[in-house]
Amino acid sequence: MKFAKEGWVFVLPFVFLAGLLFFFGWPGWGVAALVAGLLILLFFRDPKRSYEGEAGSVLAAADGLITRIDTLEDPEIGPGRYQRIVTFLSVFDVHVQKVPAAGEVIASRYTVGRKVAAFREDAGDVNEKHLTVIRRSNGDLVGVRQIAGLLARRVVCYLKEGDRVHRGQALGLIKFSSRVDLLVPEGYQVLVKKGDRLKNGATPVAVPGQAGKAAEEHS
After folding, report:
1. How far apart are CA 122 and CA 212, in angstroms?
2. E strand map for the chain
3. Mind listing the pLDDT tens digit for each residue in 109-162?
4. Active-site residue among 57, 108, 177, 178?
């Protein structure tokens, strides 16, 4: 099991505190501090996963529960309409995000904001967030919007404009509970529904329509 490096700044103080407690003869409190540190470390776990299915499939960017699927225009991504798959991450979910589709990063944009509860409908409009837009080999655009939640203190993205990325590589993380929106072109077939649980880098979420699939296969 791997862990995101950003987690250690939260975990090491508990390890240090446990050492002090053991040293001064309070082993019970020392064990409690170690358990607390372990629980925090679990927020930053990064399990190794793979997907052997269709090459054109768009995979889940985040672990969590699908709370909404809708269709909208999103000028930040590009022209046209997009299907949005909204995933809520509880404190028990993996908080590392993965690249959903191979291609080139054409936008990597951070927006300051508030930290209201991630399950609120307006969270995507008012909260701190980071948008990553990937242009696939057939020209289709796929967006990932990482959105901070009530407990989330910071959104982290590892990618920058111009990066060539492959499906399943690390995209970033959100520290503690949060929300991730995955946006695919309107013509894509969505394979999941509200209430489904996703695993990043492993759950197929959408595939191109017939025209898009043909372009993908011959690219």
Report:
1. 32
2. 2-3, 45-46, 58-59, 64-73, 81-89, 96-98, 103-111, 129-135, 141-148, 155-157, 164-165, 170-174, 178-185, 189-190, 197-198, 204-207
3. 998 866 655 556 655 566 788 999 999 999 999 999 998 866 555 788 999 999
4. 178
CATH number for the domain that contains residue 189? 2.40.50.100
**Whether residue 87 is found in the same domain as residue 192:** yes
178 catalytic? Reply is yes
Q: Does 144 reside within a domain? A: yes
Dist. CA 128–CA 150, nearest whole Å: 10
* Judgement on whether residues 97 and 164 belong to the same structural domain of the protein: yes
From first CA to last CA, the distance across the chain in angstroms is 35
190 and 102 part of one domain: yes
Do 98 and 138 share a domain, yes or no? yes
Q: How many domains does the chain have?
A: 2
What is the DSSP annotation of 108-121? EEEE--B---TTST
Whole-model pTM: value is: 0.82
C-alpha to C-alpha distance for 101 and 140, rounded to whole angstroms: 10
